[in-house]
Amino acid sequence: MAADRHAEAEPAALPGWAREITCLTVLTGTGISTDSGIPDFRGPSGIWTKDPDAEKLSIYQAYLADPELRRRSWQNRLAHPAWAAEPNPAHLALARLARSTIDTQVITQNIDGLHQRAGTPPGRVIELHGTMSGVVCTGCGDRTAMADALARVRATTGPPPPSSAARSARPCPG
What is the pTM of this model? Predict the structure, then answer.
């Protein structure tokens, strides 16, 4: 597991600037993961900059209203760069702080899980926009692992049928 590869057994030694700090909260966004190969949204090479229609993929109301947008959204998930991304020095530095004597919390807008893979304990990471490791059906509320949903995407041309539909004689309306 990637987190094991990056985690240290001993608490991290603190740099001089941090020796008087007892509690730290860090807010991160897409910028921290660009060095891991995950593009940002609004920068010069950002996803929304290069393709303004791509922003619709992140608007919940547009997603629900447009079946073609849902299909495109799910197809994009199959090849998302985050699947191959590795934590970079910034993720690793925050993980070292989280393993130190400083009570460190990370609040992130990212869904990539790189903070946890770097070794920051999951209980110290708040993912504001959720996580790419799981999904919730908008029709029935069924929760499933993203890997299972993507397997269903590969087997169809549209959004994945909810996993609840496979377990029930009554199909999900979502």
Answer: 0.80
**pLDDT tens-digit profile, the chain (174 residues):** 444 455 554 556 777 888 889 999 999 998 999 999 998 888 888 888 898 888 888 888 998 899 888 888 888 889 899 999 999 999 999 999 999 999 999 999 999 999 999 999 999 999 999 999 999 888 888 888 999 989 988 888 666 665 554 444 445 545
| Residue 117 near residue 6, CB atoms below 8 Å | yes
Return the closest-CA partner of residue 26 out of 126, 101, 122, 112. 126
E strand or H helix that includes residue 80: none
Catalytic residue chosen out of the listed positions 6, 91, 115, 129: 129
Whether 80 sits among the annotated catalytic residues: the reply is: no
